[in-house]
Amino acid sequence: MADSAIFDHAPVGLVYTENRQMLRLNARFAAIFGYEVAELEGASLALLYPSPDDFTQTGAHWTRELGQHGDYADERIMRRKDGALFWCRVRGQALDPAAPLARAVWSFADLSRERPVAALSRRERQVGVLLVEGLTAKEIARRLEISPRTVHVHKNRLMTRFGVRNSLELVRCLTSMPL
């Protein structure tokens, strides 16, 4: 009984998934996304992503990270029931690192008050997040499977959009001003 109360009343959204299907979640998790608990139970996490491509790419990345480390954390843009996009802090733990997405527990924290979403393309967001993580253009290119030149094009667009002169200013802007 106490375990259930802790799960149900946690100050962050919690969800237990099997193969990226939501099997158990708390009311806070449902509220973050604008749903009732019953609407999400049994549904795919794909429902909460900005696009099917984001869902697929995130799954591949989670599989690598959870398989190597057993846990995972990032900040990403997610989608509410009404279609609104928002920043969310995501942390996950695989129950079996050998089968990372088979069974996992995730926490989601809504960051929309601190980080409103700016109008950037999906690729600009991806490049911006990886720049903030400290990756070089070559590392970003490998991660996103694009050319280093394409990374520089997106980085230059971001610099123009935010009115900054160099990478340090861009990273400062991206970390204090949401993507």
Report the CATH architecture of the largest domain.
Answer: 2-Layer Sandwich
Helix fraction? 40-55%
Order of helices and strands: HEEHHHEEEHHHH
Distance between the termini: 41 Å
Shape: globular
**CATH fold category name of the largest domain:** Beta-Lactamase
| Relevant CATH superfamily of the largest domain | PAS domain
Q: Kindly estimate the percentage of residues that lie in beta strands according to DSSP.
A: 15-25%
What is the CATH C level class of the largest domain, in words?
A: Alpha Beta
Low-confidence stretches: none
GO molecular function: DNA binding
Keywords: DNA-binding, Transcription, Transcription regulation
InterPro entries: PAS, PAS-like_dom_sf, Sig_transdc_resp-reg_C-effctor, Tscrpt_reg_LuxR_C, WH-like_DNA-bd_sf
Protein name: Helix-turn-helix transcriptional regulator
Describe this structure in words.
This protein has helices spanning 2-8, 27-33, 37-40, 52-69, 122-132, 137-144, 148-162, 167-176; strands at residues 13-18, 21-25, 71-79, 85-94, 104-110. With 179 residues, it is of the alpha+beta class. Strands 2-1-5-4-3 form a five-stranded antiparallel β-sheet. β1 (13-18) and β2 form a beta hairpin. Keywords: DNA-binding, Transcription, Transcription regulation. This is Helix-turn-helix transcriptional regulator. Residues 113-178 form the HTH luxR-type domain. One of its GO terms (biological process) is regulation of DNA-templated transcription.
Please provide a brief summary of the model.
By secondary structure, the chain is of the alpha+beta class. It contains 8 helices and 5 strands; from the N terminus they run H-E-E-H-H-H-E-E-E-H-H-H-H.
